[in-house]
Amino acid sequence: MLMFYDYVFYFFILSGLWSFVSKRKHLLSTLLSLEFIVLSLFFYIFCVFISYFELYFLMYFLTFGVCEGALGLGILVSMIRSHGNDYFSSFSMLQC
């Protein structure tokens, strides 16, 4: 039997994935949806590990989540400086 936080987790993950797939025009909106997915995974892992008292893994998970967010913002700033906006349509891998 699934508990309440399992349903909430599934709702969060599906809404984050839907947002990631549907909002492909701007890089910032895709980065925000990825951060929402990371936060929902953190919520689920916290609910599972709180009964085992193994919360050290959460610190590692949060560290990697913050590094992923900082890397995404760095790419966003670099893209805005080089192309002038964050539209995926103006960014091509063939251009330097």
CATH topology (level 3) name: Helix Hairpins
* Spatial gap, N to C terminus: 53 Å
- Could you report the average pLDDT, rounded to the nearest whole number? 80
The percentage helix is over 70%
**Global shape:** elongated
* Gyration radius over CA: 17 Å
Poorly predicted ranges: none
How much of the sequence is in beta strands? under 5%
What is the N-to-C succession of helices and strands? HHH
Question: Which CATH top level class fits?
Answer: Mainly Alpha
How many helix segments? 3
Please identify the structural class as seen in this structure.
mainly alpha
How many distinct domains? 1
**Largest sheet descriptor:** none
User: How many beta-strand elements?
Assistant: 0
Known CATH architecture: Orthogonal Bundle
GO cellular component, one term: NADH dehydrogenase complex
Membrane topology: Multi-pass membrane protein
EC number: 7.1.1.2
GO molecular function, one term: oxidoreductase activity, acting on NAD(P)H
Structural write-up:
With 96 residues, this protein is mainly alpha-helical. It has one domain (4-83): Helix Hairpins, CATH 1.10.287. Helix content is 73%, strand content 0%. The protein is built from 3 helices and no strands. It has helices at residues 4-22, 27-49, 56-83. Helix 1 (4-22) runs antiparallel to helix 2 (27-49) and helix 2 packs antiparallel against helix 3 (56-83).
